[in-house]
């Protein structure tokens, strides 16, 4: 593994933004009882049975989440109806909109009619929504602020490649190679007991979310098992297949372990070496997976989540006290045919999440795993015919027994085109009022990051919390979302 | 005089450079477009100076072919040592294109019809892959094939989309890229824009003008991606590909969302040629064979503001095609296009991190081929491949030079290097299980952002130097083991292709004749322990242009000699394992 100059001590030394002594932020941390002493942490964890995992589902392409969570209070719904035009769902038709139980403040909301299982999870207080969340460098509260040059906007706003990257990196002012989960691994990798096994497991190959400065993800597929996770060997009917496999695989290892001066050689050599070093451990772990009783749908997203549940079930064999999983459910770039497409895709997502939650209950891990959805951006509120275009703030889901379920965090914005301080375009593009940083900060603290680590994990965080180390005051409506606060 | 000086300096300073294999290659020494080799009659008479100038030795020829083709055999290498690089390119430029993919697809349909008396039962969804494979295994236009593949990773459409299993959708689109590989980039933009597959992929077929009463606005998808990905990119560029900076040292965006909105108006009014209503879909899979047509009543009327202060006039009557032409001209003539497209092509063919000087040289040719023509692809390709950076030893020994070979190209190389042949001479390959090993096959990227993005940085020494390595974006523990296990399947298990029936009930005897087998026979005579270095040298040349170092060859040899060498099968296994290990080695995987 590459060892760059970063060390935990360096982070501690540099910590300023989220330093102790903060106000709202700190008190929420204290409430959660999550302040760890750094020195103690590794010792505490190893034998405590303390396990936590974060599961991130990237809805790639930019899901039209204003048709996932729909305002149904009359005045708000009328705005929705007028703005969305032929893309509007009928709140009185339960095959289009399912009413969420209860009220939020004095308002009511519904969810997409094909998301029955999500409705159940919400009702059981195992799932909540986060309204109007998106990529932000710093808070932007009004259209005027957006239009003035006074506020820093995310780079390449409305572009897939940038926004999908920024949701993963949470550093929207840069094009950064490393992401939130990768930086978490940089800090927290040592909480796991087998150094060669990555904290980050991907079901979708390389991704920025899980790329750290010091650690790569480990990628598997939803059909990976003990028979295919490693290098294919000579057939067992060879009398000496074991020895010859050792020769063959030994040669590969010897080649990749050489020192290379060319940086491409070195990079591919190191990646292969890392892979090779993990193989035996994963073979052993997969061989010990007990088949889940929970049945999963035959969709990629369900099968990805099933594989994650299996990995979680053998976490001890991977030496894992902390894991972050990532996968992509693609195909949400609905410039066309958004209504029909979502009718097909949202139930896949809804079922997969519920099946995963069921499986976690089955293996007794539902208290320890939090699942979230992210997506490039939400889409224009107005139609382009049968679809919608790239926009900004939208609605995401978070699931798990550990969270405050059955809630809508944040404030659902007005969807009016006119006289709407948060709308920056005729097309209906809403400025997010919760930053990705705020969500990730709470996840990080729940996961076991120290407040002192947050300025490394989330470099922009102090733009959203008023803490003693931060240079400028921030609007009062920014601060902890309250996902985990009880 | 300069030749001898160069020779002198080279001989003096090249000792110990491992770019120099057993035959000495002389670098370019300022002689553009001329490959220079020393006379070394004892070891390699072909390297001798002849009347046409210096010729590349075998390693130099192989290196060139690794940049200019998707795969090549020893005979191609020998051919280049005889013709020289520039003459070989010229011959390739002059070579007629093969039977187009669309006709090959039609052939499978015809075959189905003649067998079954109906098209029902045709396995249409395989025909795109089959047509691609048949074309590439049976035509010698190796340079055209490489350039088309590169273009397919810039002007991306993907079967992971909504083409309703129409092989024509993919084949006919790929035909644009093959046909125009040496044509003009403006023509490519024109053909791509009007192709129904791009229209479906980036959702502007049946895209109507603004209707404010319904809050309905033109689809912005194509407007954005044609700018971001196909022509100008996100930031204003100097001709050498570096970003222009504003007064505060910040890069300057090429466009903003208002510009997107303006261009989105341009791409309205296009729909299927055989459609009878504007919003209809494809009527059948041959709908993809006709360009999109303009329905003026759905095209946004009025002025559209283009970049750099240009404007589409308020045409009366509305003329959507003229508007599109203006907009494509406006983008094509943007000064970013030369450096933007040149850099992408260099990255696909030669190296991940071309220097500004290299980009500048190629962009100059893009801007003007010497006869005042902008966008001449043949000239651009020549400029890329004949550039000294592509050929000389300095670059090969530069620790930041090179690129990860694309996995699909590695796979294809196996088929060429070991002369994959079939009994019938027809070649079929669905490439599906192959794709699963490493997440790549033609026109199957996960999104319009290709399999990998041009600015991808793997962590470690590449990122630390702020360099990029796009192909590493699909290089993870899964695809690394997938590649190595794929090699085992293709080489050792001899399952080199996926072949399925082209129609329900096609007799096995039909398609088994089209299953490839590889030919290891020329190499088998060198498997004895005392000759195995000859085997490895040959494979090193054919696969890795001699770049596998002695220490790696020693590791491989040490493994091979532990395997039996008694029977013909043993000997063949030694050859196969030699290939397996070479193609698993970092020194092969990185092309330089």
Description:
The complex is a heterodimer of chains A (about 475) and B (about 600). With about 475 residues, chain A is of the alpha/beta class. In chain A, about 35% of the residues lie in helices and about 10% in strands. Chain A has 2 domains: about 10-35 and about 55-225 and about 290-465, Alkaline Phosphatase, subunit A (3-Layer(aba) Sandwich); about 225-290, no CATH class. Chain A has 14 helices and 12 strands. In chain A, the strands form 2 sheets. In chain A, strands 1, 5, 6, 7, 8, 9, 10, 11 and 12 form a 9-stranded mixed sheet that branches. A 3-stranded antiparallel sheet of chain A has the order 2-4-3. In chain A, helix 5 crosses helix 12 (about 340-360). Chain A is globular, with a radius of gyration of 23 Å. Chain B has about 600 residues and is an all-alpha fold. Chain B has 5 domains: about 1-95, no CATH class; about 100-185, no CATH class; about 210-330, no CATH class; about 340-395; about 405-590, no CATH class. Chain B has 27 helices and 8 strands. Chain B has helices spanning about 1-15, 60-70, 75-85, 85-95, 100-115, 125-140, 140-150, 165-180, 185-195, 195-200, 220-230, 255-265, 320-330, 335-350, 355-365, 375-385, 390, 395, 405-415, 430-440, 460-465, 475-490, 510, 530-545, 550-560, 570-585, 585-590, and strands at about 25, 35, 270, 295, 305, 310, 405, 590. In chain B, the strands form 4 sheets. In chain B, strands 1-2 form a two-stranded antiparallel ribbon. A two-stranded antiparallel sheet of chain B has the order 3-4. A two-stranded antiparallel ribbon of chain B has the order 5-6. The longest helix of chain B is centred in the last third of the chain and has 17 residues, at about 570-585. Chain B is globular. Chain B starts with a helix and ends with a strand. Mean pLDDT of chain B is about 90; it is low at about 1-35 and about 40-50. Classes of the chains: A alpha/beta (about 475), B mainly alpha (about 600). At the A-B interface, helix 4, strand 7, helix 9 and helix 10 of A face helix 11, helix 12, strand 7, helix 21 and helix 22 of B.
């Amino acid at each position: 593994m590459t060892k760059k100059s970063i060390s935990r001590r360096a982070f501690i030394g540099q910590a300023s933004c989220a330093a102790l002594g903060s106000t709202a932020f700190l008190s929420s941390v204290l409430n959660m009882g999550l302040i760890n002493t750094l020195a103690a942490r590794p010792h505490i964890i190893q034998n405590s049975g303390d396990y936590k995992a974060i599961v991130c589902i990237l809805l790639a392409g930019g899901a039209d989440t204003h048709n996932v969570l729909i305002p149904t209070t009359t005045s708000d719904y009328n705005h929705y109806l007028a703005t969305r035009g032929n893309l509007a769902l009928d709140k009185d038709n339960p095959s289009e909109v399912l009413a969420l139980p209860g009220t939020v403040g004095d308002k009511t909301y519904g969810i997409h009619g094909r998301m029955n299982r999500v409705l159940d999870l919400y009702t059981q207080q195992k799932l909540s929504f986060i309204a109007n969340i998106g990529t932000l460098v710093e808070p932007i509260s009004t259209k005027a602020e957006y239009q003035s040059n006074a506020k820093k906007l995310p780079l390449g706003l409305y572009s897939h490649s940038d926004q999908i990257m920024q949701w993963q990196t949470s550093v929207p002012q840069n094009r950064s190679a490393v992401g939130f989960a990768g930086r978490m691994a940089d800090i927290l990798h040592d909480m796991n007991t087998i150094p060669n096994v990555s904290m980050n497991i991907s079901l979708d190959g390389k991704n920025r979310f899980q790329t750290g400065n010091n650690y790569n993800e480990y990628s598997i597929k939803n059909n990976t098992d003990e028979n295919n996770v490693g290098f294919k060997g000579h057939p067992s009917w060879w009398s000496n297949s074991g020895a010859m496999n050792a020769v063959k695989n030994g040669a590969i290892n010897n080649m990749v372990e050489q020192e290379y001066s060319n940086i491409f050689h070195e990079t591919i050599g190191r990646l292969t070496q890392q892979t090779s070093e993990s193989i035996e451990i994963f073979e052993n772990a997969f061989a010990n997976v007990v088949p889940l009783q929970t049945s999963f749908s035959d969709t990629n997203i369900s099968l990805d989540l099933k594989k994650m549940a299996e990995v979680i079930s053998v976490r001890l064999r991977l030496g894992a006290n902390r894991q972050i999983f990532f996968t992509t459910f693609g195909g949400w770039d609905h410039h066309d045919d958004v209504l029909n497409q979502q009718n097909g895709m949202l139930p896949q997502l809804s079922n997969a999440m519920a099946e995963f939650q069921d499986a976690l209950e089955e293996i007794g891990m539902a208290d320890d795993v939090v699942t979230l959805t992210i997506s490039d951006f939400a889409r224009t509120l107005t139609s382009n015919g049968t679809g919608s275009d790239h926009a900004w703030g939208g609605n995401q889901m978070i699931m798990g027994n550990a969270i405050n379920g059955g809630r809508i965090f944040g404030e659902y914005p007005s969807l009016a085109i006119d006289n709407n301080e948060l709308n920056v375009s005729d097309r209906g593009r809403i400025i997010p009022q919760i930053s990705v940083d705020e969500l990730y900060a709470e996840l990080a603290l729940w996961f076991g990051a120290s407040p002192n680590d947050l300025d490394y994990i989330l470099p922009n965080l102090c733009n959203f919390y008023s803490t003693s180390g931060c240079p400028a005051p921030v609007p009062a409506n920014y601060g902890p979302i309250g996902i985990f606060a009880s | 005089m300069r030749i001898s000086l160069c020779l002198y300096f080279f001989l003096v300073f090249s000792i110990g450079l491992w770019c120099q294999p057993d035959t000495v290659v002389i670098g370019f020494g300022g002689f553009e477009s001329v490959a220079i080799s020393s006379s070394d009659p004892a070891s390699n008479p072909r390297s001798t100076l002849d009347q046409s100038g210096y010729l590349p030795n075998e390693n130099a020829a192989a290196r060139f072919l690794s940049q200019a083709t998707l795969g090549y055999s020893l005979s191609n290498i020998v051919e280049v040592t005889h013709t020289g690089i520039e003459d070989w390119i010229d011959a390739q430029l002059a070579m007629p294109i093969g039977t187009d993919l669309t006709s090959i697809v039609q052939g499978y349909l015809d075959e189905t019809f003649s067998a079954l008396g109906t098209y029902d039962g045709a396995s249409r969804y395989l025909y795109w892959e089959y047509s691609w494979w048949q074309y590439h295994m049976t035509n010698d236009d190796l340079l055209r094939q490489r350039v088309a593949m590169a273009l397919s990773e810039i002007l991306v459409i993907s079967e992971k989309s909504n083409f309703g299993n129409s092989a024509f959708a993919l084949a006919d689109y790929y035909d644009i890229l093959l046909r125009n590989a040496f044509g003009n980039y403006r023509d490519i933009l024109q053909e791509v824009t009007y192709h129904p597959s791009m229209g479906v992929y980036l959702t502007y077929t049946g895209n109507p003008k603004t209707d404010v009463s319904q809050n309905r606005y033109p689809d912005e998808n194509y407007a954005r991606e044609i700018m971001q990905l196909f022509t100008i990119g996100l930031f204003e560029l100097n001709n050498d590909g570096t970003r222009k900076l504003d007064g505060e040292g910040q890069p300057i965006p090429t466009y903003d969302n208002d510009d997107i909105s303006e261009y989105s108006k341009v791409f309205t009014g296009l729909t299927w040629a055989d459609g009878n209503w504007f919003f209809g879909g494809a009527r059948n899979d041959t709908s993809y064979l006709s360009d999109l047509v303009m329905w003026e009543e759905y095209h946004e009327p009025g002025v559209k503001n283009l970049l750099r202060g240009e404007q589409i006039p308020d045409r009366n009557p509305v003329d959507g095609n003229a508007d599109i032409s203006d907009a494509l001209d406006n983008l094509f003539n943007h000064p970013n296009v030369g450096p933007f497209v040149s850099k992408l092509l260099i990255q696909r063919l030669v190296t991940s991190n071309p220097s500004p000087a290299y980009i500048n040289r190629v962009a100059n040719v893009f801007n003007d081929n010497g006869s005042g023509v902008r966008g001449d692809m043949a000239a651009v390709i020549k400029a890329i491949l004949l550039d000294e950076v592509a050929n000389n030893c300095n670059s090969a020994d530069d620790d930041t030079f090179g690129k990860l070979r694309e996995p699909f190209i590695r796979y294809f190389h196996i088929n060429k290097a070991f002369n994959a042949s079939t009994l019938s001479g027809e070649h079929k390959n669905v490439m599906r299980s192959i794709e699963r090993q490493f997440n790549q096959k033609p026109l199957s990227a996960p999104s319009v952002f290709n399999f990998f993005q041009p600015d991808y940085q793997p962590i470690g020494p590449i990122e630390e130097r702020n360099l990029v390595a796009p192909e590493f974006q699909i290089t993870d523990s899964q695809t690394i083991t997938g590649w190595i296990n794929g090699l085992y399947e293709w080489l050792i298990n001899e399952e080199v292709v996926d072949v399925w029936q082209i129609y329900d009930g096609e007799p096995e005897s039909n398609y088994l004749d089209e299953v490839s087998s590889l030919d290891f026979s020329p190499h088998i005579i060198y498997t004895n322990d005392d000759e195995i270095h000859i085997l490895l040298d040959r494979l090193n040349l054919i696969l890795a242009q001699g770049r596998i170092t002695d220490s790696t060859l020693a590791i491989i040899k040490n493994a091979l000699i532990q395997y039996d060498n008694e029977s013909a099968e043993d000997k063949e296994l030694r050859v196969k394992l030699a290939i397996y290990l070479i193609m698993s080695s970092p020194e092969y995987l990185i092309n330089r």
